[in-house]
TrEMBL record:
<keyword id="KW-0050">Antiport</keyword>
<dbReference type="GO" id="GO:0015297">
    <property type="term" value="F:antiporter activity"/>
</dbReference>
<keyword id="KW-1133">Transmembrane helix</keyword>
<dbReference type="Pfam" id="PF23256">
    <property type="entry name" value="CHX17_2nd"/>
</dbReference>
<dbReference type="InterPro" id="IPR006153">
    <property type="entry name" value="Cation/H_exchanger_TM"/>
</dbReference>
<dbReference type="GO" id="GO:0098662">
    <property type="term" value="P:inorganic cation transmembrane transport"/>
</dbReference>
<feature type="transmembrane region" description="Helical">
    <location>
        <begin position="194"/>
        <end position="215"/>
    </location>
</feature>
<dbReference type="GO" id="GO:0012505">
    <property type="term" value="C:endomembrane system"/>
</dbReference>
<feature type="transmembrane region" description="Helical">
    <location>
        <begin position="64"/>
        <end position="88"/>
    </location>
</feature>
<keyword id="KW-0633">Potassium transport</keyword>
<dbReference type="InterPro" id="IPR057291">
    <property type="entry name" value="CHX17_2nd"/>
</dbReference>
<comment type="function">
    <text>May operate as a cation/H(+) antiporter.</text>
</comment>
<feature type="transmembrane region" description="Helical">
    <location>
        <begin position="227"/>
        <end position="249"/>
    </location>
</feature>
<dbReference type="Pfam" id="PF00999">
    <property type="entry name" value="Na_H_Exchanger"/>
</dbReference>
<feature type="transmembrane region" description="Helical">
    <location>
        <begin position="124"/>
        <end position="142"/>
    </location>
</feature>
<feature type="transmembrane region" description="Helical">
    <location>
        <begin position="95"/>
        <end position="112"/>
    </location>
</feature>
<feature type="transmembrane region" description="Helical">
    <location>
        <begin position="300"/>
        <end position="329"/>
    </location>
</feature>
Length: 926
């Protein structure tokens, strides 16, 4: 097919005319001028085949643009996904995998084959592929900007602002000076001051969309360093936008004179005013039209997504950078629910999984490592290598030094310096812009892309090595119920995500029986999934009331309901309970960090969590109420800085009306409060978790509405018992028995079993429907003989073997379940040297020294020093044991005075042995 284009001052040519297979080869270069022929013959192809059975008619589908594009889409998505899968064990961020996957189809790898390039990526399909790739970048910038809270800039601390300014200005000045000093090695276009300044700007600033994306992949969004980095990057981006406007105005002035610069500034002002005064109000109107708790209407979402293309068109028409339109449009969208979250739900998957592969495929087609030759090094690559190196070094040093100046820990400062050097999507877009404007050539663009891959690919493993967000939670101090004196305030974190779970947890807290002499300090945190936001938000409703007023209607309604429940609970028990409420917006996989950080800051004794699973009717399988919260519970159990209690409310306790200690002290008996006795049972199987559960149950014995039964399981003939664990268990049980001997509402039983089957049979024989609450430890330190055979049936390790058995649908009990895990202290952070490891090391040294006793004195000296350390450590342990003994003796003096002479001697002897063994054991294994 031949089509003739008329000449009207400009000639329209297809891309790469000479490369089309159907075109005849030109004997020379084709020069287009105004005096060119009036008609230009152009050979075109059909877009798609007209025959439904083209293969059987001898047609080649690769001769048609649309068919070729379909194959390209499959190939580029496949290679990018395959690369992500292969590099996953190396912990590489997604951006690195996507760039490498895009390069695989380009001339650097498969595209270097002439046949592959001719048949799979012919120029006929470049137009569609390129435009889809650019659209992918635009929608990515829009979606990330829509999640950005611009209002956070005003609330950023001064140190964040200073570090942001230093992180941009210092590298830009150093890189610009390096580029100006090496202008003699650059070509004419790259050597212009405006070009050098553009490259320095592209290398100096840190992009918020890039850092947010990589930190999200590394699960560092909710960490302290992650929040710091995103705040600094956001501040830097806002400054970078102003610098970019100024820089582009200078470029316009150099190219077309001062008049063009004035028109550019006027266009920026008009476009910004239109966005703020017209479009932003339209978005606010859409939010007002959306019912509370509902998603935004799909028609509005489609119009907004079309608005991204309109913003691109307007910025391009006004002479602005086309990529700034989607960013400005996204920044004025109200982040969070309902509009921001609906946009993320409706479009995020399509943008990230379908459009973005074309963007990285476009980058890969422009990247060719074969152009990195010696000639290119002399003309352009050498200055770029020096500029990129100076950029990395100066940014790293300036950010780390500035952070250290503001008293940021050394590890965090180094981590922050690496994070601010991360490169990604926005940087690639700037490199493409430099390439399109001929600031850098193809070798220079390839070098910048490889610089992005190397810096990001190397920095992320180092960041993971330097910074562990869970390290602060591993502490050596006791944060347990067992080590909280009864006469002091006990702190706890109450974490909930819905009102149904909250009612059950509040009921349990009443059973725990806080009193004026033993009050509770409750830190209630409401967990909300981060939707439509980039940065996690943590709100203290006592100090940041202004934040609550700025939330969306949907969020505000949910928060108000929960806060009303918290206030009502505290109002009725203000004499014995202090409550402080928080709201945390975070991804579900990072919610545990908010919980653990709050528990660490407030030095709480335990964390109370709901079990997010509920039994269906008619013995149906269990149903997940909130699947994401299951992972939250598992992560809290793994990284907690204190003890953890998981409560599964059902049966009578689900809607029980319990009198608090304040009601009983003032004889308050409302008509709605039913006076009835609740029966609780503690399944004590031994170990640290069960000792913690027994101490918690001991606090309930003061509640007159509760009768408590302790059932201790012992192995037959003491099989599988650990001597130290047995002594610690005996000490705790003896202490509990002596303290509650005169309490008629407390009973104690012992059951001897041979294996897990007998343990399960003993539990089922206990008249299971007579008990309203089952209390047990999660599993640490339990004699494996008691659970022999039951581990194979355990599927959910959150409740432990016994907890899962009692809570399961097979177990015919309607009683609620409470599973307790005691804090696992940091062994490396312990104040004393681990005794057993030292003794083992001394034995190995002694054995080795005996073999080389004839002259190797260094090992003998090391052995003697090690033994001296063991001796000193044992003496220190005795001192600590005496201190603990005096503390326990004073706290139990009232009980000791009530015993006769014979019982007093037995009791004191038991306590002394228990305390000494307890101190030795815990300091040695934790």
């Amino acid at each position: 097919m031949v089509r003739y284009f008329p000449s009207n001052g400009q000639t329209v040519l297809p891309i790469h005319l000479g490369f089309w297979p159907d075109n005849p080869s030109s004997p020379g270069d084709l020069i287009i001028t105004k005096a060119f022929s009036a008609k230009l013959p152009v050979v075109c192809r059909h877009v798609h085949s007209k025959q439904p059975f083209g293969l059987f008619r001898g047609e080649n589908a690769m001769n048609y643009a649309f068919s070729t594009f379909l194959l390209e889409a499959v190939i580029v998505i496949f290679f990018i996904k395959a690369t992500c899968f292969i590099l996953r064990p190396l912990r590489q961020p997604r951006i690195v995998c996507e760039i490498i996957g895009g390069m695989m189809i380009g001339p650097s790898m498969l595209g270097g084959s002439r046949n592959f390039s001719y048949y799979v990526f012919p120029p006929i399909s470049n137009y569609i592929f390129t435009n889809l790739g650019l659209m992918g970048f635009f929608y990515f910038f829009f979606l990330t900007a829509a999640k950005t809270d611009v209002a956070a800039i005003a609330k950023s601390p001064k140190k964040h602002k200073y570090i942001a300014a230093i992180s941009v200005l210092v590298p830009m000045v150093c890189v610009g000076a390096t580029g100006m000093a090496m202008r003699h090695q650059m070509d004419k276009t790259m050597g212009k001051p405006s070009s050098v300044g553009g490259i320095a700007f592209a290398l100096a600033f840190s992009s918020f969309p890039v850092i947010y994306t990589i930190l999200r992949d590394m699960n560092l969004l909710n960490s302290e360093v992650g929040k710091f980095a995103m705040s600094v990057a956001l501040l830097g981006d806002m400054g970078a936008i102003l610098v970019l406007v100024f820089f582009e105005a200078v470029v316009q002035a150099n190219v077309a004179g001062a008049k063009a610069a004035v028109f550019y500034i006027v266009s920026v002002v008009i476009f910004s005013a239109f966005m703020i005064l017209v479009v932003k109000r339209a978005f606010e109107w859409v939010v007002d039209q959306t019912p509370q708790g509902k998603l935004v209407d799909q028609n509005y979402i489609v119009m907004i997504l079309m608005g991204v293309l309109v913003a691109c068109f307007l910025t391009d028409m006004l002479g602005l950078l086309i990529g700034t339109g989607p960013i400005w449009l996204g920044l004025i969208i109200p982040h969070g629910p309902p509009l921001g979250s609906t946009l993320a739900i409706r479009s995020e998957t399509f943008i990230h999984e379908f459009l973005m592969p074309f963007s990285f495929g476009l980058v890969g087609l422009y990247t060719d490592v074969h152009f990195l030759s010696a000639d290119a090094w002399d003309n352009q690559l050498a200055p770029l290598v020096y500029m990129t190196t100076v950029s990395f070094i100066t940014k790293f040093i300036s950010v780390a030094a500035a952070a250290a100046f503001f008293k940021v820990p050394t590890r965090d400062s180094l981590t922050l310096g690496l994070i601010m050097n991360l490169r990604g999507q926005l940087d690639i877009m700037l490199y493409l812009l430099c390439f399109r404007k001929h600031v850098v050539s193809l070798p220079g663009f390839t070098l910048l892309v490889l610089h992005t891959v190397v810096i990001t690919g190397v920095s992320t493993p180092i960041i993971s090595f330097l910074y562990d967000p869970n390290r602060p939670y591993r502490i050596s101090k006791h944060r347990t119920i067992q080590h909280t004196p009864p006469s002091t305030e006990m702190g706890l974190v109450l974490a909930v995500s819905n009102q149904e779970a909250l009612s059950g947890l509040i009921t349990f807290l009443d059973f725990a029986y806080p009193t004026t002499s033993s009050p509770f300090a409750i830190y209630a945190i409401q967990l909300m999934e981060l939707m439509g936001r980039a940065s996690p938000v943590f709100i203290d409703h006592k100090l940041q009331k202004e934040e609550e007023g700025k939330e969306g209607d949907e969020e505000k309604g949910r928060v108000d309901q929960m806060q009303s429940a918290f206030k009502l609970y505290q109002k009725k028990r203000e004499e014995c309970v202090t409550l402080r409420a928080y709201t945390a917006h975070a991804p579900k996989r990072l919610m545990y960090q908010d919980i653990c950080e709050l528990a660490l800051a407030k030095k709480t004794a335990f964390i109370l969590l709901p079990y997010q699973r509920e039994r269906l009717e008619d013995n149906a399988p269990t149903e997940l109420l909130d699947p994401g919260m299951l992972s939250v519970n598992a992560d809290v159990l793994a990284y907690t800085p204190c003890s953890v209690c998981i409560y599964y409310g059902k049966g009578r306790l689900r809607n029980a009306k319990v009198r608090s200690s304040v009601d009983q002290q003032h004889s308050i008996q409302p008509s709605r409060v039913r006076q009835e006795t609740y029966r609780f049972v503690v399944l004590f199987l031994g170990g640290a978790d069960n000792r913690e559960a027994l101490h918690l149950a001991d606090r309930m014995t003061g509640n007159p509405d509760i009768t408590l039964t302790i059932v201790r399981f012992l192995s037959f003939n003491h099989e599988g018992e650990d001597a130290r664990e047995k002594k610690l268990d005996d000490g705790v049980v003896t202490w509990f028995w002596v303290k509650n001997e005169s309490n008629d509402r407390v009973s104690y039983k012992e059951v001897v079993v041979k294996n897990g089957a007998e343990t399960l049979a003993a539990i089922q024989a206990m008249n299971v429907n007579d008990y309203d609450l089952w209390i047990t430890g999660r599993g640490e330190g339990i004699n494996t003989k008691i659970l022999e055979g039951l581990d194979a049936w355990s599927e959910d390790h959150q409740l432990g073997v016994i907890g899962e058995t009692v809570a399961g649908s097979i177990f015919a009990s309607e009683g609620s379940v409470l599973v307790v895990q005691q804090q696992v202290r940091n062994q490396k952070g312990d104040a004393y040297i681990e005794l057993f490891s030292l003794q083992a090391g001394a034995g190995k040294l002694e054995a080795a020294s005996s073999k080389v006793f004839d002259g190797n004195k260094s090992r003998i000296l090391r052995m003697e020093e090690l033994k001296e350390t063991i001796k000193t450590t044992e003496e220190a342990k005795k001192d600590v044991a005496i201190i603990d003994y005096e503390w326990i003796k004073n706290n139990n003096l009232s009980e000791v005075e009530m015993l006769d002479g014979e019982k007093r001697a037995v009791f004191m002897s038991t306590i002394v042995g228990f305390v000494v063994d307890h101190a030795r054991y815990y300091s040695s294994i934790h």
